[in-house]
Amino acid sequence: MERPSRYLANSSTALEQLRGLIHQHESTPGTPLPTERELAESLGVGRREVRRALDVLEEEGRIWRKQGKGTFIGPAAPVAPAAIQGLVQQTNMLEVMEARLHIEPGLARLAALRASNEHLALMQRMLERINNVSPDDPDLNELWDSAFHRAIAEAAGNRLMLGLFDTLDAVRREPGWHHLRELARTPAKVDRYNDHHHRIMHAIRERQPHVAAAAMREHLLDLQHALMQAIHLGDDTP
After folding, report:
1. Most buried of the four, 54, 94, 133, 194, by CB within 10 Å?
2. Furthest C-alpha separation in the chain
3. Residues 6+ apart with CB under 8 A from 20
4. CA–CA separation, 14 vs 23, rounded Å?
5. In 3D, which of 74, 192, 183, 174 has the Cα closest to residue 130?
6. Cβ contacts of 187-193, under 8 Å, gap ≥ 24
7. Which pTM was predicted?
């Protein structure tokens, strides 16, 4: 497993690598994970980032913890194709957003039609996590934001589209684009994005597929605009 530099690694990259690790043991649920200290060392991140990534996996039901015993693998976790690294070299953040705009409104529409009570409960827990994050913590904001979007993708009930979402999400988390994502996630913008999330969640819960799709599209267009501003700001930096 390739280890990112400590400068670039964050909770999202830790989550991606942990999903890959879990995928290797999907046929043997109950397999214990290494300790947080060992994971931090092997993944090239801090223990805080490991704990945050494990929180997401536990919320998704991918792992379970027992006090005094450790952390254990549950159901199989999603894993991105090996070709992703090649895609990262060939694309850019704006192409990723263009693809998200074509895929995620459809996922939100399907989620409004198909989400089970368990899916709705998971999305609600993700929203509550987002609400409790400080706007000044971009790492944790990005982590739970991504988890909320993935919960919608899973609720859509289409495994192929879920796989496409996972591929896009893995490319989006490319560490080299970390600075751009932070510029697009100021405290004021985070509040606006969170309002979008609640509107998307409301439409899905109320079984309003067209409203859910429109709300998701508005959210992604807002984020795309923020990223374009960040790119221009970066171009102007001496």
Report:
1. 54
2. 52
3. 1, 79, 80
4. 14
5. 192
6. 187/135, 187/136, 188/135, 189/226, 190/135, 190/141, 191/135, 192/222, 193/145, 193/219, 193/222, 193/223
7. 0.71
pLDDT in tens, 158-204: 999 998 998 888 888 787 788 888 888 888 888 899 999 999 999 99
Axis-axis angle for helices 93-114, 159-172 (nearest 10): 150
Find the mean pLDDT for residues 131-151: 89
Cβ-based neighbour number of residue 237 at 10 Å: 5
User: pLDDT tens digits, residue range 93-117?
Assistant: 889 999 999 999 999 999 999 999 9
Q: Is the model's pLDDT at 215 over the cut of 90?
A: yes
Q: How many helices (H) and strands (E) does the chain have?
A: 11, 2
Secondary structure (3-state) at 21? helix
Q: What pLDDT, on a 0 to 100 scale, did the predictor assign at position 220?
A: 97
C-beta separation of 46 from 13 below 8 A = no
The Cα 68–Cα 106 span in angstroms is 43
Closest CA to 32 of 3, 72, 2: 72
Least confident of 7-11, 57-61, 76-80: 76-80
pLDDT value of residue 8: 44
pLDDT at 153 over 50: yes
What type of residue sits at position 22? I
Query: Based on the number of CB atoms within 10 Å of its own CB, is 128 exposed (0-12), middle (13-18) or buried (19 or more)?
Result: exposed
Say which residue the tokens 């400080």 belong to: 134
- Give the span between the Cα atoms of 17 and 79, in whole angstroms: 9
Of the candidates 164, 137, 132, the residue with the CA atom closest to the CA atom of residue 10: 137
